[in-house]
Amino acid sequence: MPSADTGASAGAGAAADSRPDPTPEPIPGSGPDGGPGSGPGRGSESGRDSGQDTSKLSPGDPGHGRMRLALFAAGLATFALLYSTQALLPEISRDLHADPGLASWTVSGATIGLAVAVLPLAALSERFGRRRMLTVSMSVAVALALAVPLAPDLGTLIALRTLQGAAIAGVPASAMAYLADEVRGKHLVGATGLFVAGNSVGGMSGRILSGWVTEAWGWRIGLAAVAVASLLCVVAFRLLAPPARHFRPSPLNARALTRTVSAHLHNPLLVRLYAIGLLFMVVFGGVYTVIGYRLVAASFGLSQGLVGSVFVIYLVGAATSATAGKLNARLGRRGLIYAGIVTASSGLLLSLADSLVAVVAGLVLITAGFFAGHAVASGSVSHTATEGRAQASALYQMAYYTGSSLGGALGAAAFAAGGWEATVALTLGAMVLAAGVTYFGTRSAAAVHRRRLHEARA
């Protein structure tokens, strides 16, 4: 997407504590593929409280517009590459004689690579710099993208895609910290918005471009077209991105990192937020990995180009993320999570109909529901973590992309075994679990509240 996810939160989270919902701040959510940004890093946490903020970039400064365009290009390239094979899975299956379960690993491998690499690369960016990490990460990802169309077999293709996902991880690990280091705090949401837009446009346009090129010249040329377009974006990023003026390197400290990560994983609220993000992404990853197989089948018979164009529905996600703050004010955090679950589940059930209109309407509801839940969960992480916010957000990304990998792999295996109905059953199960996690959080918060009242009276 992806996405989101960065910066301000809607509050302390959906599975939450006993505090009332505050007036929500804007949730810079994720783009359809973006997943969360890395959240505030060292530079942002220190910069908000120091006099250096006045020397950072703001609208009207020569570097501010360049910074925003550079991050838009980075977001576009990153998420065009990450999911580049997703719309092409039916063609890859046919050409390489692979069933959907195996072919789906060209997507799941990339997201697993990202999930594994994002936390180490976030730590490296603290030592070597965000701009450098962004440049190296995108350059390596594009180099691998140029090699991907030459893969002689499915195993090689999956291996290259997994390495590509690990390289891509440097972008979400560094992008938001780079912005927070260099842009004044009160203008950070606006700068973030263009990066998120790049995520959305990249995730959508990459699939559409590869779909139509594949229809004309085959999936290998389709992937090559995405690689070349992404190369142009990397060049644009390097030419536009201003030098880092406020970054201060910090030494690598594996022990401190381990302590911070362990503390986050022992925080029940953060763990629930990670679980909710993972389960929502199981649905999203499963549906969009498998939907191409259903739409090219005889009952619908869509061409590869039209299947790629289905991903324009991602714009629904961008609109949902943009309104998440207002919805949160009306429904509350837990209410918005439940609304997302109900909306996505309704879309899954609607998609069972053998009607293209019903399937498209179902995808719209699934997409809207996913982004409603994801925007609250991801935006709540930075608010909940009072220390080590970059690591807290990186852990959310790990859970988020692990969910994408699980959804893609298990959804495709279910489809191979029992058709679309089996995929829907799997993803509905994920929504039931998400509702259970949220309900458990509500009960836990109520118990804590009662205990505090009892202690206050005593």
Describe the structure.
This protein has 458 residues and is mainly α. Helices cover 74% and strands 0% of the residues. It is built from 18 helices and no strands. It has helices at 42-47, 62-82, 89-96, 100-103, 105-128, 130-147, 154-168, 170-182, 188-217, 219-240, 254-265, 268-296, 304-309, 314-322, 324-331, 333-350, 356-384, 389-457. Helix 16 packs across helix 18. The longest helix is centred in the C-terminal third of the chain and has 69 residues, at 389-457. The protein is globular and about 65 Å long. Mean pLDDT is 81; it is low at 1-32 and 36-51.
**Broad shape:** globular
Largest sheet descriptor:
none
Poorly predicted ranges: 1-32, 36-51
- Give the strand tally: 0
Instruction: Specify the helix fraction band.
Output: over 70%
The SS-based structural class is: mainly alpha
Q: Give the topology string: H per helix, E per strand.
A: HHHHHHHHHHHHHHHHHH
- What Rg do the Cα atoms give? 21 Å
- Residue fraction in strands: under 5%
How many distinct helices? 18
List keywords for this structure.
458 residues, mainly alpha, disordered N terminus
